[in-house]
Structures are given as structure tokens and as C-alpha cells.
Amino acid sequence: xxxxxxxxxxxxxxxxxxxxxxxxSLKASFPTAKSYSTTAGGENAGRVAGQTVVTERRGxxxxxxxxxxxxxxxxxxxxxxRLLEELEAFDSDPDLNVxxxxxxxxxxxxxxxxxxxxxxxxxxxxxxxxxxxxxxxGPSRLQLSKPLIAAVSGFAVAGGLELxxxxxxxxxxxxxxxxxxxxxxxxxxxxxxxxxxxxxxGLSRALDLILTGRPVGxxxxxxxxxxxxVVPDGQALQAALELAEQISAFPQQCLRADRSSAxxxxxxxxxxxxxxxxxxxxxxxxxxxxxxxxxxxxxxxxGKGGKFS
Length: 309
Hints:
Strand content: 5-15%
Shape: globular
Radius of gyration: 20 Å
Oligomer: single chain
Distance between the termini: 29 Å
Number of helices: 10
Strand order of the largest sheet: 1-2-3-4-6-8
């Protein structure tokens, strides 16, 4: 699937949940997630003054970090714009294979920043034509051509949940909390939540979360298929990086063709026949470009017994 690019980010309406009362109500059920960083200086070592999104390249993998820990990484207009820019840059960079989206300071993302919403009411404008502008949270309307992994710690709620749903895979810490917390305030899911969530976990389970707005812990998320891996607190980013490096090591044309076909069959194909035709049309070119060489390596002993190295 092609990446859709949009020129500017309009001021948007969304919500984050940072009230002290809300925070106290959940702390009793879910312990505070520990922060983690692969840098020697700890979670805040990579923080750069004025940058709401920070990135780091690690070979063929890039990390994209939401850098507003003082508001549980709630997204404002600047952050949404920067997230869009960084994921577009990742998708167009031939030297990058996988991106990891995470939040700095112990939380993934608490949704859109209510303080900015309150201070910019007069200038609010939302692009309703999804082909002409980005989503309120920034990159939510993109159709990336390469894998994105979400490393989820702390809260991933409301618009933050929708950012996590943008990813192909979600690595979730044990104390993480996910949910449609915007339900209580009459704020709709307009960054793909009602589109992606039913596809990922089924309509019945999706409606349970959408209609009740209840918090979902890591183990329930894993059972639902909302989480792909559950790891100890403080280890989501490292585990996501290891997974990204593993994926990045595979032949990429084949991997992307199979990924694209799966996405097409899920979201765009009108029939089984159409989906099958897309699969063969995009798979056949890979046979000459990568499969023949792979088969040759296999005949010389590589990968025997199911080995991946």
C-alpha cells in the first residue's frame, strides 16, 4: 500500500486524560510503569529542549519517541505534525526497514492535549476529507509500506490507543493500560479507532471496549490480540527494538509484499478472488528478486531444522 502524504496539519479536536482524580483511580489497579531507555543516561537522556518528538537511528531501524513526559505524552498540534513528518521520512528512506514508536518517561500516549484544546478553541478546524489532510493525532491516516512496532508503556488511551493501533505489532509492558477513555466525555474516535480495532480483535470485543471505555490491562490485551507481546515493566522499548532488528534481517521485498497483501485483503479487497489476485501479482516478482537466491542458500544448508540464523 502506498504512503499518503498530506501538506499541512490543521488544528484538531482531541482529548487527553490527565486529571488528578482519573490518575488516582487507576493507580490503585495498575502500578506505575517504570521508565526505560537503551541509552546509558536513562529515559530522559535523549530529551532535547523544544523537541516534542525525538528519533534515533540504529542501523536499519529507527525509533520515534513522543517527548512530552510532563503531560503523559499527550499530543499537541506540534507533536502531531512532527510524528507525521518522522513516519513519512521513515517510509521514504531506503536505508530504513522498521520503525519503533514509543513514549518517553514511562507513558506511551494519553491522547490529545486538553490544555491546547482549551487555549485554541476559536481556531479549531478539522479536515473531514481523509484524502486531503492528516489525522488529528498526525500520522493516523497513513498507510505505511514498511512495518511499524509500538512499544507501549504506561497509558495508551484515547488518541494514544489509536496511535498504537496504527502499528503492525504492539509490545506491551505488564502494567500498561489501554482503553477508549474518551467515551466518558463524548469525544469520538476519529483517528482510525473504529476502523482498526474491530479488524484487529473482532467486532464483539471491539464494541466492548468502544462502548464501555473501560481500561484494559496487558494480559487481557494479549488474550484479545491487541497486544502481540507482553514484557516486564521497563522492557518494552528494548523488546521492540530486538523484534524490529529480527524483522529487518529478513529479505525485505518478500516481507513487504506479504505484508502489503495481508493489509490489502483485510482493508481493501472486495472479494476473495480479488485478494488472491493481488497476492499472486505482488508475489511473483519476488521469486526472481529474492526467492531464487533464498532457495539456493537453503540447498547449501542455511536454515535447516527451522533455524533463523
